[in-house]
Amino acid sequence: MSVAAIEAQPRRRRSLRVLIVGAGFGGIAAAVELRSHGIEDVTILERAPDLGGTWFYNSYPGAACDVPSHLYSFSFAQRRDWSRLCSPQQEIFEYLHEVARDQGVEQLVRTGRTVTACSWDEDAAVWSVETSEGERYEAEALVLATGQLHQPHVPLIQGAGQFAGHTFHSASWDHEYDLSGKRVGVIGSGASAVQFVPEIAPRVAQMTVFQRTGNWFLPRKNRPYPALVRRAFERVPRLQEFRRRFVFEYGESLTLLIRHPGSIGRIGAARSAAFMRSQLKDPVLREKVWPDYTFGCKRILFSSQFLPALERANVELETERVQEIVAEGLRTADGRLHELDCLIWATGFRTNDFMFPMAITGRGGRSLEAAWQGGAHAHLGICVPSFPNMFVMYGPNTNTSGGSIIFYLETQAAYLRQAIQQLAARGAGAIEVRADVEAASDHAVQHRFAGTAWTACDSWYRDAQGRIVANWPGYMREYAEQAARLDASQFDFEPLPRQAAVA
Ligand code: NAP
Predict the structure, then answer these.
(1) Atom of ligand 1 nearest to the CA of 155
(2) CA 200 to centroid of ligand 1, rounded, Å
(3) pTM surpassing 0.85?
(4) Residue among 71, 299, 350 to mutate when testing ligand 1 (max atoms within 8 A of CB)
(5) What tens digit of pLDDT does each residue of 269-320 get?
(6) Is the separation of the CB atoms in 477 and 249 below 8 Å?
């Protein structure tokens, strides 16, 4: 039905319930945005026993953000008293709680609810949502805010299950287990490993880090802010604002390096190489650590502690492929047995799964999994054709390598709020992005990756077919420009079903 035809209809009203799945930064951002624009009937379903999302689950030693907190925070809830440049997990977790409480959305969160299925009921124009606890919810609009980094990935390695020692994933750290004096193996050397390895290295008897691919590093000196600096942030007018703007521009400059690997990107690579050389004196170790791909293709790691930790006498970096898990530990491809008491998986997340294994069924019984068979795609990462009144937060192609995901989440929250406002203002039953609009924006996103560092290696940004489905290919400001204003002509609107209309 055309927009004009809808506008000609008498306005009808019905309740507008919004169900949000996930109470991390995305879910909280969406709830705050909706409530502050008068959309009151909002419920957030959360699998965990608390809100927080990734900052609830990832509590490993040293867990912290590597984006400075002045930017890794909501624009509407700026704090002047961050303890350091990049806040630790507990501080971010408390911040999110504080925001949810202050903004009056904390009480909307229903914890311990694992959503298993969401189906669009065309006759009633509502989403029907089921949980593994046997509950059923209904809502006119559905927001999937599960993000890209919530399902731990444990690779299938021969002999899995044979290990007689203790084992856990970095995203479900076993704080009860005492690592002191233990022989510890860490599989993976990505953003999580580089944070906890230096923290636990002094405690363990022996540690082997099994690295498949080396990484590019840049410094991160994360000492607590001196009292003088903290006082300055609190008292000097606009200093906080200036700092946020500075970090924003720094993030954009990282994207610039990644977007132009053959020219200005070389400066980033040289800076990183000089830093890594200064950190690693041992030439053999240096060679083992050195990345063999273009700077910026995978996530650049910010750490001034990880490389020195590898030089400790009780730490070994193993670059032989892990071939087999046995009762005593791990065997590498060279036949060597690494005896371990504890094996820690720092192997990341099933990023391409997005909200799956949730079964999402849209118009005409269409499954989202089938729609995304050739790779996940959504208009601005938010709207998917055939899935009316459904909005994804931190969806396909909205991850950032150089900025703050919270900036993107706020933009997405404002966008979906506009969609829901359109629904209400037009008295429509459904809003759905046009397939041609989504296809064109997907084409533009994929095209914009051409020539960038992201295309120069394999990474978790890609799906099995090699298509980059995680990352936004440009700058934060570019995304904000494109998603700032919802263009109603890019959407189809459906009238309110007869039985749903209230006179
Ligand atoms: P990750 O970056 O995906 O790293 C996983 C590591 O496991 C990589 O070293 C990977 O090697 C290795 N690996 C995966 N499968 C393997 C296999 N079969 N055999 C051997 N090694 C294997 O995961 P992560 O460290 O948990 O970080 C995930 C993302 O979370 C980051 O990229 C970042 O976006 C986010 N994060 C952010 C922060 C922050 O401070 N903001 C902190 C932690 C995490 P390859 O490189 O060869 O694939």
Answers:
(1) 18
(2) 18
(3) yes
(4) 299
(5) 999 999 999 999 999 999 999 999 999 999 999 999 999 999 999 999 999 9
(6) no
List, as one string, the DSSP characters of 452-484: SGGGGS--TTB-TTS-B-SB-SS-HHHHHHHHS
Query: CATH assignment of 166-216+262-345?
Result: 3.50.50.60
* Ligand 1 site-directed mutation target among 186, 187, 192, most atoms within 8 Å of CB: 192
Copy the structure tokens of residue 402: 């150089």
Residue intervals in the chain for CATH 3.50.50.60: 3-151+350-502, 166-216+262-345
CATH number for 3-151+350-502 (one of 3.40.50.2000, 3.50.50.60, 2.60.120.340, 1.10.10.10): it is: 3.50.50.60
Q: How confident is the model over 451-461, as pLDDT tens digits?
A: 999 999 999 99
- The full length of the chain comes to 503
Atom number, ligand 1, closest to the C-alpha of residue 86: 40
- Ligand 1 atom at minimal distance to the Cα of residue 299: 32
| Average confidence (pLDDT) over 66-88 | 95
Report the separation in Å between the CA atom of 150 and the middle of ligand 1, taken as the mean of its atom positions: 13
Nearest Cα residue to atom 31 of ligand 1: 191
Asked if residue 43 lies in contact with residue 108, where contact means CB atoms within 8 angstroms, the answer is: yes
| Gyration radius of the chain over CA positions | 24
DSSP designation for 397? T
CB-based pocket (< 6 A), ligand 1: 64-67, 149, 155, 170, 187-193, 195, 212-213, 299, 322, 346-349, 460
Ligand 1 atom closest to Cα of residue 215: 46
